[in-house]
Amino acid sequence: MLEVKVAVLGASGWMGKVHTMAYQTFPHFFGGSGGTAQVTVLVSGNRAAAPELAALVPGARIVQNWQEAVADPDVDLIDICLPDNMHYEVAKAALLAGKHVFCEKPLADTAEQARELADIAREKKCITRVGHAFPRYPVHDRAKEIIEAGEIGEIKLFKGCQHVDMFGDPLAPYMWRADGQLARTGIVGDTGSHVFSFMEFLVGRVSKLIADNYIVTPKRPVVNGAAFGEDITLTGNEDWADITNPDGSNVMCCFANGARGLVDFSRVATGRKFMQTYEIYGTKGSLSYTYDEVNRLQFYSNADESGRRGYRAIDIGPEDATYGAFLPLPNFALGYNESKIIEAAEVIRSIVSGQPKWPTFETGHHICQIVDACMESSRLGRWVDIE
Q1: Comparing C-alpha atoms, which of 360, 352, 340 is closest to residue 29?
Q2: CA distances, 27 to each of 40, 76, 81, 131, 140 (Å)
Q3: Residue 348 CA neighbour count, 13 Å, CB half
Q4: Helices (H), ranges, 33-148
Q5: How many whole angstroms separate alpha carbon 329 and alpha carbon 333?
Q6: In Å, what is the CA distance from 227 to each residue of 174, 178, 332?
Q7: Under 8 Å between Cβ of 101 and 69
Q8: What is the pLDDT of residues 102-143, one digit of tens each?
């Protein structure tokens, strides 16, 4: 199979549009020798979006229910860009139907659900992928190379954060992401899982943690039709809805390899449009990264001469095959959409070759374990072990 037929679920939303674009675009950068994708089905509950979707993907069937896409014998890959509470049900149905599955994060509402999905995928021999795109920027492959080569020694401390201000304004309108029925874990599964994906990719498994989850603004105005990122003017006549999942969290953790971790994330960091950083400290050196310099890694080594020691920038360039697919000069910006193009290319190559690539549903299970532990720890006010 060189052409993979794809159904994108939630096609009229932000993430659905990004995924659809990625399947259409990745051969322009990575070529088609590893396989190509044809988006044959687009699923959207928004009837008004159908004409636009049809124009963007000529020839694709536009349907309103995901069951139709899962039942389609011509579809090879189910791509899930639906609200969090639907991920488990849809992914399970797709796997049982023998489909490969690419699911946006978080993989499921609970680690138990994620474990079941990973087991079904193994039994059915399906390729799986979770949408943890940020660690797939080329700079993090370089960080992993440095760590695995022992250049910073034994890792002792990971510090990571991710903050946005989507709810920084107390009058910012309510949305499904703040509904504990639609997104059980709130910012822990939404943004925290991004930091957890770096931890899993670069440091290893978390063995225990203690978390303090919090809600900053307990009620928000309901504005029908409000979309993520829009400026909204309130009339004063709005209904108000309770916020029923966390706005932020502070986490301390221990890794199975003996390292320690300090993590914080939120959706209420006023002025922080998108802040993402990590620092990794080892016995021989350290690494530092910020998303504001998305192709630059800061590296410190004790092996440098005394008096010459200090952080030095490693700029990722075309010598890295993934970076070079996009740009011929080092340290030009790669954006979020490029990370999704990388994901799409890797998913299709995995299906064609039969070789899974990080992050699979096994990875998603571990990250869901961390999310579950954060929720339990905050509720109980104590450390929680992770099996």
Answers
A1: 340
A2: 17, 18, 22, 19, 23
A3: 29
A4: 50-56, 66-71, 87-96, 111-124, 138-148
A5: 10
A6: 10, 13, 30
A7: no
A8: 999 999 999 999 999 999 999 999 999 999 999 999 999 999
